[in-house]
Amino acid sequence: MVKLPAKNLELLAPAKNLEYGKTAINFGADAVYIGAPNHSARASASNSVSDIEELCTYAHKFNARVYVALNTILYENELKSAELIINHIYNAGADALIIQDMGITEMNLPPMPLHVSTQGHNIDFKKIKFYEEIGFTRFVAARELSLAEISNLSSNSNLEIETFVHGALCVSYSGQCYMSAYLGGRSGNRGECAQTCRLKFDLLDENNSLISKQKHVISLKDMNRSDLLAELIDAGVNSFKIEGRMKDISYLKNSVAFYRIKLDKILSERTLTSASIGKFEFDFVPDPERTFSRGYTDYFLNKRTPEMTAETSKSVGKLLGVVHKTGIDFIEIHTAETLVNGDGLCYFDTEGELKGFNINKFEDKIIYIPSVLSIPIGTKIYRNFDHEFVKNLQSAKTARQIEIDLSFSEIETGFKISAKIPNSNYCVENLYELVKEPAKNPEKAIETLTSQLKKSGDTIFIINNLTISISKAYFLPISEINRMRREVLTKLNDTLGQHYMRKTQQLTPNSVPFPVSELDYRANISNSLAQKFYARHGVMMMQKAFELEQNQDTKVLMTTKFCIKYNLGQCPKEHPKTDAPEPKYLKLNTETFYLEFDCKACQMLIKTDFQ
């Protein structure tokens, strides 16, 4: 089966809440994903049903969609409330539900499309085909997949493919990380991840000798695939997803606008269209490095590289330049960037620690710094808070605009004005009974009529085509022309969303065999409905989820495609002969973790012990 690339492509943005959801749509998103009232993979980003309903109403005005994330594993006492929430979400207008827990498919569900969350560990063709056969409509691809692997999944499945293109990276395969739950009871599969991977670890060899001390050895840079969108389209991706439900609104505006511009350029060069209506004019120049950034990687999309780890878990921002000269209270750097008082700068000291300070004074390449800082010549200086850029983002106006055709004509008793969105069912008109008084200065009257009708004020509309059909020039006061134009545009705006058609999909239980007959704790089975689901699909043996296991001391806590040995230049496939000490342990305070390298599968396992 050869599947052609999708014709309507979707830029999918995070929505921390109602305000963020509307902002994402205003600045370029074709769809947003938002947390359910409970059971979202970001527990601190839950939202009320009424807010979800308001967001759906707003999004549907632009043919944009709202996907609700209910993608945690559920405990037995949560099943009834989760089913109730799902039905409320559907009635609120949500376009799809993102889930991880297969027990949800055993509930009494409304006809709402289901998307398999990336926490479903979506890397295997057989599993993706299974999801298709039981009635899912989309899967969120594992971040670790290469272009070739995505293309293979696309060619052998009719499911829509949603792929992350920007934002923070988990070092473990999503849904397969248990370190946070093991150390402090905060489960990532329950939306409570403590981000243990972002901490500093000691790396030890088999003799417990230090290889590196207190380094971010498993903390990854952020993803940025903005230069590979065309290749992802060719691989069959439908939806391009930005991570960041916990990031601030400046990050949201900046990243969404950046990808909107990138994607629209590709759309204009191909016979492709955006999934929502509208065009975008930004009053700022998007640049992801000017908001939260740990540095960037495209991860494994093309090939494995050693430049994936971040030197810090914090935002580093944009590199400005290096220190050329120092003094007691100043440094001199050469940079093409404009710096202002209030900018936040940072650098790595001689111990590799990230240090920061605010600019109090900058003039002629000289940055005045607190005298307690000692910054050597040659040190790289970054800006991790761009005062002017953030200020511009905060005041940025709604960027989405809708092109319309406006026509003005005469009727027997006056005039008619109509407004239409091209290639849509949105068309309104108003009739005005007015005395038709011939103009004393016809040329001036036509000029005034034209110029006033072309204005759209502070609406979201742009008058793309204006048609005036009158037998002669009439005198019309400017106030009257403006009133007619304003009223018809208001009427058109009020109709937006009325023709929106929400897709439906009723899940019908079947007995299609699951690809394997035995499942361990990494299947994340945490309730009786999930057990029922897998049993009906032929699974004979299954373990309880890690979070329910009493003995967690013999488990793999992380499975990663990222490899510490590779980063150290010790990959046996690329460097078969090396005398360097092999990494064996990660130490975090008093906890020691064992590293196991499955070179055949190109995976690294982080375990609690030698078992």
Descriptive notes:
With 611 residues, the protein is of the alpha/beta class. Among the domains are: 219 residues, TIM Barrel (Alpha-Beta Barrel); 90 residues, Thrombin, subunit H; 90 residues, no CATH class. The chain has 13 helices and 31 strands. An 8-stranded parallel barrel has the order 1-2-3-4-5-6-7-11, surrounded by 5 helices. A hairpin with a 5-residue loop joins strand 17 and strand 18. The longest helix has 21 residues. The protein is globular and about 100 Å long. 40% of the residues are buried.
Q: If classified by CATH, what would the architecture of the domain at 8-169 and 221-277 be?
A: Alpha-Beta Barrel
CATH classification, class level of the domain at 8-169 and 221-277: Alpha Beta
Side-by-side strand order of the widest sheet: 1-2-3-4-5-6-7-11
CATH superfamily of the domain at 8-169 and 221-277: Phosphoenolpyruvate-binding domains
Query: Would you identify the regions where 5 or more consecutive residues have pLDDT less than 50?
Result: none
Short account of what is shown:
By secondary structure, the chain is α/β, with parallel strands linked by helices.
